[in-house]
Structure formats: structure tokens, C-alpha cells
């Protein structure tokens, strides 16, 4: 196990395999999409596998595959098979929008993928089309059904957006009544390719909790899990649970154990930093595993104390503007 300069363990890698996506979600990118990376600028699967092997030797034991949308990249399942065989990797999971996932659910279960995070911001087809700019809700619901039938732990991620889907909090929360799912409501962040949509974030985690408790007065806070970004609640009589993630308020930074690697090979030790290490350059310059290891350790030893610190550091250098799409960062 390795620790950062604030004595937090580094054990969880979020690995983006692509910046491309088949949806155009309001909170993630502009309607016209983003300028995607040329193929040669994206890490190959072989390069990604090498990075995971190096990080596994340092103590990373969990890998979550993200995008963009992971299933738009060809060869993903073969890559997952290779990752599952790396010594030290104990947990392999995936974040997906569910549009292309259904045909792969049985293989994911056979591979031992422990959990899948499914992006689903509304159960209303018209609002889904408005938010994602695509009419794909039936495909996502089919994926949800197959994941649950396959026995894969499923978390539904819903970004709460003022004027877009706040009326969906209760219908989504009601999924937990009869389904063994964790429905997680996430504060909107400014990673949409153009900066924050609102001068002030009205739907903070506190307001989300208040709204839920008004409708479910018996809702009870559950003990927190180590390193969790979510505060979990149980509604009496419901099979599943509800989570609230203070992604913009950043209340969980003190226990953060995760790092990110973007599809182009940029290491982020905080979601809000602008990249702290060009891993692709090291890989393609012929650096040995020892050099990669030293570079990672140096980055971990200079990690910001929290997301506000990371954002301030980038602001000093780049004028304070956050303009990336979440698709380029990797979920």
C-alpha cells in the first residue's frame, strides 16, 4: 500500500479507455459534442495494461473502467479479460451509460466484474431525450434489467440538474423499493465542456437530502463505508439504498483513495486538477517500469489536500476556467 502526502492510501484507479461517447448529456458536453482525440493520441490497450501492472505493484487493487462511453471502443471485453488476470487487481468495475452494454452483460458477469455504475438521470423518455440529446432510454432500461438478473451489483448515477430533472428525484428513489439497486444522486459539476451552468449551485447535497427526507420521512442514514464518496440512506421496507454524492461541495476529499488516468494518458490525482503527469509521453519515450514508478510516486507525494486546493492551483496557472468535458476526464 502506498500513501499520498496527506496519509491517504492510493488504491483505486479510474481508467478512461476513450473520450468518445454516443450520448450528448447536458451536464457533460455541449450539444455539438467535443473535439475528440485523434486515435494516435489515445493510449493503446497495451499501454493501459502496462500502466495498470505498474500501479498494481504499488498497491492499486481496484480498477474502474470509464470513458466517454467504454463500449464505443472496440475490443473492450478482451481488454477487461487481460486486466482481470493482473496480479494484485482484486476488483474490476465499470461505468457505462447502458446504451451499448446489454449484449455484454453475461460476459461481464462471467468475467467477475463486481459492480457496474449505470448513468440514468430520469425515467421519463422525453426528459431523457432532452438531457442526453438522444432517444435511448429503452436500451438503458434493458441493460438495467439484465444487470440485475445477472446478479451484478448495480448503482444508478443520476446528476441532479436545476430545471432539467429535479422532478425525477422521487421516481428514481422509488426504484429502491422493489429493486436491489443503489440510486445515487450527484451534485452537478462544471465539467461540461463550457463551465458551470449556474452562478450558484442551487441543488446542493443538503437540498437533495432535504427533498428526499420530505417524501421519505423514515429515511435513515447508514454507516459510511471506507473511502466512499457517497452518503448512504435506507428507506424502511425498500430493498435498495439511496446515496448522495457531494461532488461539487467536495465533502469527501479527506478520505479520497482514487486517481484517474485519462484516455490520452494524463494522470489526475484529483478530479479538479488539470493533470499532473504525462504518462503517455513516458510510455512512448521508452521509460522503464522503474522510471514510471518513480514518476507516479512523485505525483502522489504532491497531491492537493482537496478539490478546492486542486482547483485553486489550476486557477493560478490557467486563469480559473474549468472548460473540460467529463468525457475527456474519465467519469
UniProtKB/TrEMBL annotation:
Main EC class the enzyme belongs to: lyase
Keyword Lyase: yes
GO MF entry, a single one: cyclic pyranopterin monophosphate synthase activity
Keywords: 4Fe-4S, GTP-binding, Iron, Iron-sulfur, Lyase, Metal-binding, Molybdenum cofactor biosynthesis, Nucleotide-binding, S-adenosyl-L-methionine
Domain Radical SAM core: from-to ranges: 5-226
SUPFAM superfamilies: Radical SAM enzymes
A Pfam cross-reference name: Mob_synth_C
Signal peptide positions (record): none
InterPro entries: Aldolase_TIM, Elp3/MiaA/NifB-like_rSAM, MoaA, MoaA-like, MoaA_NifB_PqqE_Fe-S-bd_CS, MoaA_twitch, MoCo_biosynth_MoaA/MoaC, rSAM
EC number, as in UniProt: 4.1.99.22
Catalytic activity: GTP + AH2 + S-adenosyl-L-methionine = (8S)-3',8-cyclo-7,8-dihydroguanosine 5'-triphosphate + 5'-deoxyadenosine + L-methionine + A + H(+)
Gene Ontology biological process terms from the UniProt entry: Mo-molybdopterin cofactor biosynthetic process
Record keyword Transmembrane helix present: no
Cofactor(s) this protein cannot do without: [4Fe-4S] cluster
Name used for this protein in its record: GTP 3',8-cyclase
Annotated source species: Spirosoma arboris
Gene name per UniProt: moaA
Amino acid at each position: 500500500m502506498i500513501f499520498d502526502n496527506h496519509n491517504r492510501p492510493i488504491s483505486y484507479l479510474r481508467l478512461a479507455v476513450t473520450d468518445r461517447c454516443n450520448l450528448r448529456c447536458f451536464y457533460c458536453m455541449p450539444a455539438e459534442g467535443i473535439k475528440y482525440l485523434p486515435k494516435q493520441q489515445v493510449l493503446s490497450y497495451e499501454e493501459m495494461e502496462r500502466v495498470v501492472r505498474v500501479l498494481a505493484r504499488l498497491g492499486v487493487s481496484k480498477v474502474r473502467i470509464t470513458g466517454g462511453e467504454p463500449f464505443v471502443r472496440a475490443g473492450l471485453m478482451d481488454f477487461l479479460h487481460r486486466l482481470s488476470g493482473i496480479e494484485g487487481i482484486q476488483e474490476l468495475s465499470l461505468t457505462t451509460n447502458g446504451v451499448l452494454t446489454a449484449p455484454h452483460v453475461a460476459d461481464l458477469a462471467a468475467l467477475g466484474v463486481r459492480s457496474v455504475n449505470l448513468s440514468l438521470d430520469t425515467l421519463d423518455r422525453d426528459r431523457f431525450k432532452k438531457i442526453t440529446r438522444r432517444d435511448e432510454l429503452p436500451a438503458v432500461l434493458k441493460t438495467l434489467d439484465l444487470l440485475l438478473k445477472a446478479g451484478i451489483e448495480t448503482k444508478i448515477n443520476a446528476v441532479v440538474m436545476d430545471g432539467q430533472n429535479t422532478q425525477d428525484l422521487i421516481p428514481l428513489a422509488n426504484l429502491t423499493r422493489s429493486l436491489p439497486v443503489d440510486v445515487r444522486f450527484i451534485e452537478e459539476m462544471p465539467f461540461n465542456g463550457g463551465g458551470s451552468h449556474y452562478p450558484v449551485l442551487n441543488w446542493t447535497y443538503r437540498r437533495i437530502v432535504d427533498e428526499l427526507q420530505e417524501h421519505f420521512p423514515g429515511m435513515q442514514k447508514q454507516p459510511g463505508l471506507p473511502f466512499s464518496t457517497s452518503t448512504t440512506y435506507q428507506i424502511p421496507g425498500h430493498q435498495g439504498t439511496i446515496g448522495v454524492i457531494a461532488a461539487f461541495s467536495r465533502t469527501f476529499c479527506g478520505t479520497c483513495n482514487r486517481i484517474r488516468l485519462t484516455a490520452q494518458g494524463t494522470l489526475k490525482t484529483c478530479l479538479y486538477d488539470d493533470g499532473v503527469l504525462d504518462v503517455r509521453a513516458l510510455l512512448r519515450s521508452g521509460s522503464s517500469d522503474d522510471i514510471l514508478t518513480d514518476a507516479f510516486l512523485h505525483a502522489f507525494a504532491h497531491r492537493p489536500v482537496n478539490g478546492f486546493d486542486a482547483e485553486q492551483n489550476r486557477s493560478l496557472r490557467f486563469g480559473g476556467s474549468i472548460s473540460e468535458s467529463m468525457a475527456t476526464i474519465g467519469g
